Amino acid sequence: MRNLVTGLMGLLSLSFAIGCGSGSGTSDTKDTTVAAPDTTNSFDIASNWKIGIQTWTFNHFTLAQALDKVDSAGVKDIECYWGQPLGADMKGEFGIKMSNDAKDKLKQLLQSKGIQIVAMGVISPDNKDQWIKAFDLAKEFGLSYITAEPKKDQWDMIDSLAGAYGIKIAIHEHGNPNPYWSPDSVLAAIKGHANIGACADVGHWERSGLDPVDCLKKLEGHVYGVHLKDIKVFNDVNAEDTVVGKGVIKFEPIFAELKRQQFHGMISIEHESNWLHNLPDVIETVKFYNDQVAKLK
Domain count of the chain? Predict the structure, then answer.
């Protein structure tokens, strides 16, 4: 009896297996592979991106006045440039020649407004001594990176210094014929240098006739910062700036590519027009940025 039951169960199992097959009699095995999580969609932009302002935007004013404007725009992260007069009760200008008294007062002013200097540039020091002073200043103010256009024979030296200080070098890309106008030239500097990356200037790329998305793809994994600007004419090195979102640059694919790459860092507004009355333009750019980022979530 036991053998009969066993035989019947075997036949039933065989019939069930045939019934679950495809119409052609071929077994249709279900793929049980677990899909990898979509890290792009889960990437948290709010905690990884910073909207900042390059204070060159307010270069007709002192740094103290620029900080008032940055504060009015609701921005808390900045990139300072060397040579901007400090203003208020601070003597001198921002850079490696600042006195200890000026540094202390600037730190107090920054703290009172809740603003931090994330980067400085664009700099091109002549020698190692100047680079060391630059890194010392960056370390004192807690910078994440230095935006620069270094000489080719400095690549090894600044990479070593950047590693020792724990502060990256982001090569800025001015328009053609600047030595770093193309991402290919920046990649040449990056090769073999773990602490050198890029400051992606989308406006200068378009001035040079380059597609910013293609450039970002070439530099994937090496983008430390971004300069955010818009221009009126494509492929014209003299093209005028305009309010971001009102020019020829298409920003949706740019932001989407930065998200895909899981970029983490500062996107600095660098508005180079309407110099004396450009705060409303900057505020409008901040709103544009926030609206674009909201669409990515």
Answer: 1
